[in-house]
Amino acid sequence: MKTITLVRHAKSSWEYDVNDKERPLKKRGFKDANLVSMAFKKRGLEMDWVFSSPANRALSTCKIFIKNLNIYTDILTIEEDLYDFGGEHVINFIKNLDENYQNVMIFGHNHAFTSICNIFGDMFVDNLPTSGLVVIDFSIDSWKDVNKGKTRFTIFPRDLK
Question: What is the rounded CA–CA span in Å between residue 124 and residue 25?
């Protein structure tokens, strides 16, 4: 079995005159990422590897999760293909994951992540909110065979407030 945990970056700020990749998190983003990561920690899932988009807002969200989940940074890879809004690059990335990984966590962006949740999960997600997390299990031995899986659970900030 393979498991993927998708996390959309936390709420970002538009207050700064920076390019899209450099946009930082808002205060609410830090708060929500902490809420979701602590709720996820209670689920006890161990990650084999963590991947993040290089965008500041995604990587900042990832670092909050890593800290709160006590994950070593040596299992973090920043992946350019995850800076994707349509989903094609992310899906290709997933299908080419190292076969030694059973449980991976990926930090990225919408609309890609909402689409992927609905393509691969069995629970409809209208819109994966910022800091939203979805865990999908696949009854496969190879990432190349990723197809319809089972949505194990979701954690959305609004459900924790």
Answer: 27
Supply the pLDDT for residue 119.
97
Cα 119 to Cα 148: distance, rounded to the nearest angstrom? 7
**Cβ atoms of residues 105 and 7 within 8 Å:** yes
Sequence-distant (6+) residues with CB within 8 A of 125 are 114, 117, 118, 132, 134, 154
Q: Which two tokens stand for residue 83?
A: 């800076």
Structure token digits, residue 150: 């089972």
Contacts for 86-94 with beta carbons within 8 Å, 24 or more apart? 86/111, 86/112, 86/115, 87/111, 87/112, 87/113, 87/115, 87/116, 87/119, 90/116, 91/116, 91/119, 91/146, 93/51, 94/4, 94/143, 94/146
For residues 151 and 121, the answer to whether their CB atoms sit within 8 Å is yes
DSSP string, 81-99: GG--SSSHHHHHHHHTS-T
Convert the pLDDT of each residue in 75-110 to its tens digit. 999 999 999 999 999 999 999 999 999 999 999 999
The angle formed by the CA atoms of residues 12, 72 and 88, to the nearest 5 degrees, is 50
Mean of pLDDT values over 31-57: 97
Alpha-helix residue ranges (DSSP H) falling in the chain: 27-41, 56-69, 88-95, 112-120
